[in-house]
Amino acid sequence: MLLIEMLKNPTIFLFDEPSNDLDYDSLIWLENFMKELDIPLIFVSHDTKLLANVANKIIHLEQVKRRTEAKILFLITLTRIISKKEKIL
User: Fold this and answer.
1) Any alpha helices (H) in the chain, and if so which ranges?
2) 3-class SS at 75?
3) What is the rounded distance in angstroms from the CA atom of residue 25 to the CA atom of residue 83?
4) What does the alpha-carbon distance between residue 72 and residue 21 come to, in Å, rounded to a whole number?
């Protein structure tokens, strides 16, 4: 499916959990593919390694109250997210 989308000459790529259910070789390929894109890339992921290796900006959304309110934190680096979680633990 990715090849089909590439043939359409997209101006942006949107991925939802792109690393789910991939083997190691496919993860490496995907990471390299995402790094080499010349167009904007927006993706949702819980994969901290993928975020650290590919993302240059991170928007972290955190649900404060279940299904009623969302607290939005704008974070520039994954390091800040990890350090906050380590402080909580």
Assistant:
1) 2-7, 24-36, 48-54, 78-88
2) strand
3) 29
4) 28
Q: Specify whether the backbone of 41 is left (phi greater than 0), alpha (psi in -120 to 50) or beta.
A: beta
pLDDT in tens, 19-71: 999 999 999 999 999 999 999 999 999 898 999 899 988 888 776 666 555 55
CB 40 within 8 A of CB 12: yes
Retrieve residue 10's tokens.
């997209």
What's residue 7's pLDDT? 82
Q: How far apart are CA 65 and CA 67, in angstroms?
A: 6
